[in-house]
Structures are given as C-alpha cells and as structure tokens.
Specification:
516 residues, single chain, 11 helices, alpha+beta, five-stranded antiparallel beta sheet
Amino acid sequence: MRINIFQNLQQRFGTIGWKLTGAYMLVSLLLGLTLLIILLGGVIYLLNSPLLPNAMAESAREYADMVAAEYRDPAGDVERLMERLGMLTSAQPSAEAAAPQAGGNPNAQLEIEADDVVLALLDPAGRVIITTHSHDFPTGVEFTAYEPAPAADLISRAGAGITDTLQLSGWTANRQPIAVAPVLSQENEILGVFYMRLVVLPPLTLIFSQLVPIVLIFLVPWLILSGGLGMLYAWIVGRGFARRLQSLTAASHALAEGDLGRRVADPSIDEIGQLGREFNRMAEQLGANLRSLRRLADENAQLAERAAQFATVEERNRLARELHDSVSQELFSLTMLAAASRRVMEHDPARAAAQLTEIEAMARRALEETRNLIFALRPVALDDRGLVPALRDLVVALEQRQGLKVDLQTRDERRLPLAVEQDLYRIVQEALANVARHSGERTATVALAYQPTCLQLSISDQGQGFDMAAPRRPQAIGLQSMAERAQNLGGRCTIQSAVNAGTRVEVQIPVDPIKA
C-alpha cells in the first residue's frame, strides 16, 4: 500500500510542471538564505574590521578640533564642551562594569562603571583634565592606568603628534573600539589628547536576536511572495511544456502503432518545437519508405509470378521435347511396324512374328522412358533429410528402374540452405539422366566434397561421350539447364567430354561457412 502511494506521488510530482515549481521555490529559498548570510557576514565583518574604530577616530579628531577651538577662544569653556559632548554621545547606561586592567595602580580601588561611551581630555602626559566620567576618573589621575590596552600606545602616539587615524584606533581585548586624537594649537603644539572608548558594543547574540524581527518582517514575506510568484510562473510554463510533450508522446505512440499520418502541430522555435518538426520529417520519410517498400513488394510479387509462369512454360517445353525425342519416336516406330506386320501377316507369318517381337521391345522401351520422365518430374523433399540422403534415394531408384549403377562418394557432409541443395539435386538428376540415355554405359560416379568455403560436385561416366565442338540440337537443354543452375548459385559448371572417352561434369559453388 505504501509503495503504491509513493509511486502515485512520484508520478504526480515527477512531471515537468512540478519540477519547475520546485526549482523556482528552491532558487527563491537559496536566494533568501544567501541574503541572510550576506547580512550576518556583513555584521560580523563590521564588528571585526577597523571600520568602526576608524570612524570613531574621525569623530575623535572632530571633537579634538572643537576642543582646540575652545582653547583658542578667550571665552571658551572646555568643561562645558565636554559635558555637551557627553550628552551628544551618551546612550542608555550599561549594567556591566569594566574592571581595572593589568598594569594599573594597585593601590587604587577604583571600580569604573562603564556607560555607553567614555570621553576624556588628557594632558600630553596622559593625565585626566576633564572626563565625562569624573566620578570614575578624578582630575589629575593617570588615565592609562585604568584603561585597557592598547589605550596607552594610542595615547602615546597622539601625544607624539601622530594624526593618522589608522594608527590612532583599535580594538580592546573584550572587543571595545578605542580612538584618540591630538589636540593641536595653531602652531601645531600638543595641547592634549582627546580619548574615546565605546563601552557597550552589542554582542552577536543581541545582534542576531535583533535580526529575527527583520527576517520575519521582510525576508519571510519576500520568500513567500517570490516563492508564490515562482510557483505560479513555473506552473503556467510547465503546464505548457507538459501539454506539448504529451502531444509529441501521443504522436510517437501512434507512429509506433502504424499511424504514419499523425503529425505534431507545434510552430514554436524552441527545442520542443524543433523536436516536433524533426518528428514530422521522420514520419514523412517513413511514409515514403513504406510506400516504396509496398511498391517494391508488389513488383517483386509480379516478378515472382512471372518467373513461376516462365518456369512452368519452360518445364512444359522441356517435357514436350523429351516426349518428342524419346516416347514420340518410339510410338511412331511402333505404328509403322504394326502397319507393316498387318500387310505381311498373311503371306509371311515368320516375318510378321519377328516384327511383333520388335514391337514388343519398342513398347517396353517407350514405357521405361515414360517412367523415367515421370520420375524426373516428381518433386523431391529435401528440407527434412538433406542432399546426401536424397541422392542415395535417387541412386537406388535409378538402379531399380534403369539398371544404372551409381557410385556415390561424399566427404565432410553437412547441411546447406534448402535452395542450394535443391539446385544441386537437379544438377545430379539431369547429369545421371544423360548418362542413362546417351552414354551407352550402365555405371557412373558422383563425388560430393564439402569444403570450408565451397562445394565441389562431379558426375562422370566412361561411356561413348560426344564431340564438344559439334553443334548441339536446339531440343537438348539438359547441359544448359545444369550450367544455369550452377550460375544461379554463384558458381560454375564445367563439362569435359570426347568421343568414346566418357563425359565429366564438374560443378563448384561458393558456400558461406556461417550459413552452412
């Protein structure tokens, strides 16, 4: 049950529309997280970089210039200026206290209550002149004894007249920014040092806690809005893609089922449209190829029918020639002898009896010739036995019917394609029929040798032979038939004969070892 539910969910949410929707939502989420990480990284970098101390150093220099102006003004009041600066820069007091640092006066029992910012005007020796924390830093006290490092180094540099803000600012060990600035007269004499320390710096936990409302107010709605818009856009776009792909899939299925007239109507220029046009071209090409194949099949069927008709006509003509050359001549002779016997029967009974004996012999020869023709025309079944068993049956039949003894010799026997074996059988049958009719010999030899790439066949006799140079009778088609059959098999047929020297028929055809 769980597997079926999982498969249904996978099929439902595995479509292009849902994949695009998920991709847009993931991109929106990653973008929001990236913005949050950048914001947090910026805060962390700000709290660890010299930017904040440098900014304080710039403020300290402005305050130092204001103090110098008060010194130059006969009616100036530096103490009031410091009180006013303290009110401008003060924030809510902190509950934390800054403990005295190592290296301070051990006899001093000052516990400095740290507010948001400490402002102090020091003399060139680093003693307190005026401070916003007068209860913590009495006038004349050595200020650096109670301030954390690197306050002493920064105050020393300012007292030496250094004005570079990068050298007059820094961080304390507990991450409080410090900045100083020299108070200079018009003649650039050191009147004092202006000191600033930011006591209360928001910790990271506080900063992060303050970021939560920002995230909830701005980032979460932005994610919801962008995710919703992305989902809507992906659903619309993905639905269009899905419909187009479904149309292409249906057309492909119809093509596989044999409907070559199905086409994809997609005029767009994107990849799916190009795929649809390629599908249409493929369907048109398949249709053209199928029409060509059907036309070729019809033409082949017509050619096969014509070939069968020609073969039937040729076989009838051959049968007619055989009957004319053998049985017809015998029957004509029988007619002539019968008429002659009737004429001499009354006055020469002995001669009539001799003619009747000759008539009987001729009738037997005609009967034997007719049987041979019928045997030659009888179809041969080779598909379940092979060529060599069929030749053995042929040899037995020839010896029984015509008294022709055939020595059948085979080597490395194996099966060949049926069409090849049938043509070879007809060649042997025709050659042995010629031996029985024309050689005057009652023995023959058939040798069949199977080799890896070819087959060699020979039929020979020691009969009276014939003159190879003499013209052949038009009715004698047996030799031509053997040569044509060998040629159809891709081989050749060679006939060797001489008067009173016998006849030898040799056939060689190529054989594919794989098909064999």
